[in-house]
Amino acid sequence: MTRRLLYLVTEDWYFWSHRLPQARAARDAGFEVLVATRIADHGARIADEGFRVLPLPWRREGGLIGQIPVIAELVRLYRRERPDIVHHVALKPVAFGALAARIAGVPAVVNAITGFGFLATSASLKARLLRTAIGLVLPPLTNRARARMILQNDDDLALALARGLTCRDRAVVIRGSGVDLTHFAALPEPAQGPVTIAIVSRMLRIKGIDTLVDAVRLLRTRGLDVRLLLAGGPDPANPASFTEATLKSWAAEPGIDWLGPVEDVRTVWAQAHIAVLASRGGEGVPKSLLEAAACGRAIVATDVPGCRDVTGREGEAGFLVPPGDPEAMAEALARLAQDAGLRHRLAATARQRAETLFGAESIGRETVALYETLLRETH
Fold first, then answer.
1. pLDDT by residue (tens digit) across 121-175?
2. Helix, strand, coil proportions of the chain in percent (round to 5)?
3. Which of 80, 170, 177, 349 is the most exposed place for a label (fewest CB within 10 A)?
4. Using CA atoms, how far apart are residues 263 and 47, in angstroms rounded to an integer?
5. Would you give the DSSP letter of residue 242?
6. Please, are residues 170 and 198 in contact by the beta-carbon 8 Å criterion?
7. In what order do the strands lie in the sheet with 85-89?
């Protein structure tokens, strides 16, 4: 009998970008794969993989009351489709999906935390209230028999355990979404032009885009000829997004180019000497850094959970700097910009770490093994 696996993800682009390797591994292991998500531009591509697409009307705005129709729809969907296992991806699907799964009687549940976002970094009243609410509401839904929680790094595991979201024997660390090591092959550095620094990210404050811009300004005022590529778009529905006007104003400055969203990010890394992520925190394992590492790029990142998982020890595959510190960021970037030999050594190690720790095939095998373990517990 074919086992039915249902992924719950807010956005179709996110599933395509971050969960495709695991879903393919499950399909190849004999699972029927369903994907419940909001459909925008990737629905047809997901269906072409042999996955059944279930359109879901997620609402990004509004509190719990505004989400009640979504939760009710999830309960109906779970009862109708009768999955053997559901895999909730990211905090909102975990919260709403775990509740719906409990009501609908889904036999096995995987709750995947892909980083705690601003909840891990913000001291705002909203963040404090949400942390309190999560600590009260989620544990009975997620810390139970026939449920597993996936965390992407050891810091997030410690936080989840401290909040009671899971317990040690129901938690597993699977380090990120994995990277296709064939698709993201090692690339030669650009042979000409200034040393180019690139970031691939949504243009959000939590990603430290402003810190990076300030760091590059410092480098250029000190006479270092560097170029910054900002690859990614704003997110108008996110209050922490930089506006298009701000991004265009930065791109009008010497040495800064805003590329907007890029379909094939290999074209970005082909132009770059250095990969950077100035995140203020809340990461799982940043996919952009995994792809940069696979392409053989030395990394400068902030010393926050997730980023340091990719770089390893200081000076192994890159350098780590404090978040929100343009001066420290500038110093680390200058060190790599001015020393090609050092840059090449770190780049080689970055590729090696990608092959050893973060390959999509191995991440897929780990995930499918977790499904198999859970399903054995239900019989």
1. 667 777 677 777 777 778 888 988 999 999 999 999 999 999 888 999 999 999 9
2. 45, 20, 35
3. 80
4. 19
5. P
6. no
7. 52-55, 31-38, 3-11, 85-89, 108-112, 147-151, 171-173
**Which overall architecture, per CATH, does domain 3-178+359-377 show?**
3-Layer(aba) Sandwich (3.40)
Tokens of 160: 């989840």
Phi, psi (5° rounding) for residue 60?
A: -80, -30
Quick check: 108 and 85 in contact, CB under 8 A? Answer: yes
User: Which H/E stretch holds residue 3?
Assistant: strand 3-11
Q: How confident is the model over 40-71, as pLDDT tens digits?
A: 999 999 999 999 999 998 876 656 667 788 89
The rounded distance, in Å, linking the Cα atoms of 59 and 56 is 9
Check if the beta carbon of residue 354 is closer than 8 Å to that of residue 290.
Answer: yes
Domain boundaries, the chain: 3-178+359-377, 195-357
Q: Residue 220: what residue type?
A: R
Q: What are the angstrom distances between the C-alpha of 81 and each of 5, 51, 52, 101, 106?
A: 10, 14, 11, 12, 10
* Residues paired with 260 in a beta bridge: 231
The domains spanning 3-178+359-377 and 195-357 adopt the same CATH topology:
yes
Whether 97 contacts 74, CB under 8 Å: yes
Does the reported pTM lie above 0.90?
yes
**Residue 359, strand partner residues:** 179
Which CATH code, of 3.40.50.2000, 3.20.20.360, 3.30.300.30, 3.40.50.150, is assigned to 195-357? 3.40.50.2000
CA 323 – CA 303 distance, rounded (Å):
7
What is the secondary structure of 17-35 as a DSSP string? HHTHHHHHHHHHTTEEEEE
Tell me which amino acid residue 228 is.
L
Report the C-alpha gap between 34 and 270 in whole angstroms: 35
Torsion region of 115: left, alpha or beta (phi above 0 gives left; psi -120 to 50 gives alpha)? left
